[in-house]
Specification:
The complex is a heterodimer. Chain A is mainly α. Chain A is built from 14 helices and no strands. In chain A, helix 4 packs across helix 14, helix 6 packs parallel to helix 9 and helix 6 runs antiparallel to helix 11. In chain A, about 45% of the residues are buried. Chain B has one domain: MetI-like (MetI-like fold), CATH 1.10.3720. The longest helix of chain B is centred in the first third of the chain and has 37 residues. Classes of the chains: A mainly alpha, B mainly alpha.
Chain lengths: ~375, ~300
């Protein structure tokens, strides 16, 4: 230290004193050093194994074993220096952080896989052709995009008015048994398995239009069953955020209740409601099972909601994977490219929804 | 709800009547929809409940012999998924609510929510293309070294598309909703309880064990029940990942696996005809009843908790 050369420095500064607050504790960077050492040890072991076995180096395994090695070793060091209780604390910290990292593995792996495999067929032909008369390579997803847009749009047309008015009822009008019953059933409806919604739509349309009917409108109905509860929940939450003072101010000016709702309550919460609706669309646009049951699949473009089967993006992914022809790689490539398209659409919807929530939210005092 | 019931009623204008009428109509549409789901499923499945193999060609002997293994597979796969997802989701929720830097917390929460945005069919593709080949070596190691343990009995599946893989995919898929609920409950822990624990000299883990976890217990229970409901009804990922043979077995790593109700419907429905359709819809009805009961139970726990949560 340079300080020690100065003659007038007090002696107490130069001699390291025992700080009672940091005594018996691991220094701050210690966990990182232990983590680095654990990974180095594991990397060395895997290196020896790779040389001995003659196989390629297993990076994922080395990192995983290193991380697993870190957990007991940080506990051991902590027990030796800090005692039982702090060691337990460090152990739990390592485990909790490990849980988060563990959950990130599938997300990262999935993103990388979809992007790398999906880019193989992510070209102009893919977005300008349908699968009509395509048996091998080539072909595209125009019919699936048309179907997805039509069915999701119709589902939104059905479920947004119903969902929005239900939430208005629950927040502004509902008291007593009916409101409580609806709240409970909406909660339960959120948990309906998507395939049951598909079976319901299929059952309805096959009873009225004859067995085996698969149309776009049936798919839209099944999506609406899944979408309504999500819209109700999110809009209800947003309507409850509107301050009561705004409603009371409107009533005090003599504005009727319905005009208060239309002109004051809904505009105030519009950003949040829009966000909720977009998130619900993002949720149902990826639904496969109900559309597979209710709308079926086809290779051609179909603009008619009421006649004939209709393809959709998720079902396209599934059918391309499940009914592989020759060469199989062409079908797999199409499946991955459609999966990439689907993920991009869902992510874009999510992102726009968050942006709407951020930029169009009403500005309150804080 | 804004006006007390004792005050003088406001004048009812036509606009008010139309608006409140349509609100009530929309609200009752929820009841109608749920009732319609139940009624149409019941109507369509009645012929199947007492059918035998002579009526419907997919039945081995009678309906219950067909649906039994499916129910077992559904419950078994979901239970495995829950077993894996529960500790991890509690860990993530604690990490976001109590360990991560405050500024990062909401971003990290958003990243976990991204998992929920991935469509299930993409999870299915990923499960076949990436996860199953990645875990297959681990499975054969488990069978070779721990094969005496009944769950790990051999022979090992060559593709890795076993019920354990399906359960891992299911666990990843139910993780976001369970994490979201757990996180919310942990964040609601009264700060005074936490600070009291810390002031008594508790380490962070002791604070969590004595203040956060007891407070969030019912939240954790309802999160896991809701996650169970999701896992029970999840279709495409299981249908794609699992190579099912319809056997009734607890073994995790062999190529002989029970199927689940939802996956079986998705796989068999496109080719089904005549009474077979009714049989499949009847299995769907059973799934509907089970998930309805599970979700109602979860909501009941949540609502019971609301009344005496110590938050204030």
């Amino acid at each position: 230290m340079t300080m020690t050369t100065k003659p007038d420095t007090p002696a107490a500064v130069t001699t390291p004193i025992q700080n009672s607050l940091t005594a018996g504790r691991l220094p701050t960077p210690a966990p990182w050093i232990i983590l680095g050492a654990a990974i180095a040890v594991s990397a060395a072991i895997f290196g020896v194994m790779a040389v001995a076995g003659g196989s390629g180096y297993n990076w994922g395994g080395a990192l995983l074993v290193g991380a697993l090695l870190y957990i007991p070793s940080v506990w051991l060091f902590s027990v030796l220096v800090e005692g039982r209780r702090r060691a337990m604390d460090r152990l739990v910290t390592a485990l909790v952080t490990g849980a988060f990292v563990l959950a990130m593995i599938p997300l990262v792996s999935l993103t990388i896989t979809v992007v790398t495999f999906g880019l193989a067929r992510f070209d102009a032909e893919f977005f300008t052709n349908s699968m009509r008369n395509v048996t091998g390579e080539g072909g595209g997803i125009v019919h699936a995009i048309v179907g997805t847009l039509l069915m999701t749009g119709t589902a939104a047309l059905i479920s947004i008015p119903i969902g929005l008015m239900t939430s208005v009822y629950l927040v502004e009008y509902g008291h007593g048994r009916l409101a409580r019953g609806i709240t409970f059933l909406v909660d339960v409806m959120t948990g309906i398995p998507s395939i049951v919604a598909g079976l319901f739509a299929y059952a309805v349309f096959s009873i009225f239009l004859g067995p085996g009917t698969r149309t776009g409108i049936a798919g839209a109905v099944s999506l609406a069953v899944l979408m309504i509860p999500v819209v109700v929940r999110s809009s209800e939450e947003m309507l409850r955020l509107v301050p009561n003072e705004l409603r009371e101010a409107a009533y005090a000016l003599g504005v009727p209740k319905w005009l208060t709702i239309v002109k004051v309550v809904l505009p105030t919460s519009m950003a949040g409601i829009t966000t909720g609706i977009m998130l619900s669309i993002a949720r149902v646009i990826g639904e496969t099972a109900p559309l597979l049951i209710a709308a079926g699949f086809t290779a051609s473009v179909n603009y008619n909601m009421f006649d004939g089967r209709m393809q959709s993006l998720p079902v396209f992914v599934y059918t391309q994977y499940a009914n592989q022809g020759n060469p199989p790689q062409a079908y797999l490539d199409r499946a991955w490219a459609a999966a990439l398209t689907l993920i991009l659409i869902v992510m874009a919807l999510n992102l726009i929804a968050r942006l709407v929530a951020r930029f169009f939210a009403p500005k309150f005092g804080r | 709800m804004s006006t007390a019931s004792t005050v003088i009623k406001a004048k009812q204008r036509p606009g008010d009547r139309v608006f409140s009428g349509s609100a009530v109509f929309a609200g009752s549409m929820i009841l109608v929809t749920l009732a319609a789901v139940a009624i149409f499923l019941i109507v369509q499945s009645l012929p199947a409940l007492f059918a035998t193999s002579e009526d419907a060609s997919i039945l081995p002997t009678n309906f219950w012999a067909y649906v039994g293994p499916l129910i077992f597979g559904t419950v078994w796969a979901s239970a495995l998924a829950l077993l894996m997802a529960l500790p991890v989701s509690i860990g993530i929720a604690l990490f976001i609510s109590h360990y991560a830097p405050r500024r990062l917390a909401s971003v990290l929460g958003y990243i976990v929510d991204l998992l929920a945005a991935v469509p299930s069919v993409v999870f299915g593709l990923w499960g076949i293309g990436v996860l199953a080949p990645a875990v297959q070596p681990l499975y054969s190691w488990l069978v070779d070294n721990l094969g005496w343990f009944p769950l790990f009995a051999g022979p090992v599946s060559g593709t890795g598309r076993t019920i354990l893989t399906a359960a891992i995919v299911l666990a990843v898929m139910v993780l976001p909703i369970m994490t979201a609920i757990n996180r919310e409950v942990f964040l609601q822990t009264p700060v005074l309880h936490e600070e009291a624990a810390l002031a008594l000299g508790a380490t962070r883990w002791e604070m969590i064990r004595t203040a956060v976890l007891p407070f969030g217990r019912s939240g954790i229970i309802s999160a896991s029940v809701l996650g169970l409901g999701r896992a029970l009804g999840e279709t495409m990922a299981v249908a794609m990942v699992l190579s099912a043979s319809g056997a009734l077995t607890f073994e995790l790593l062999t190529s002989v696996n029970p199927s689940t109700i939802a996956a079986n419907i998705a796989l068999s429905f496109p080719e089904a005809y005549g009474p077979n359709v009714n049989v499949l819809i009847a299995t769907g009805l059973i799934l509907f009843i089970v998930t309805f009961a599970v979700n109602a139970f979860a909501r009941w726990i949540v609502s019971r908790r609301k009344e005496f949560s110590g938050a204030n």
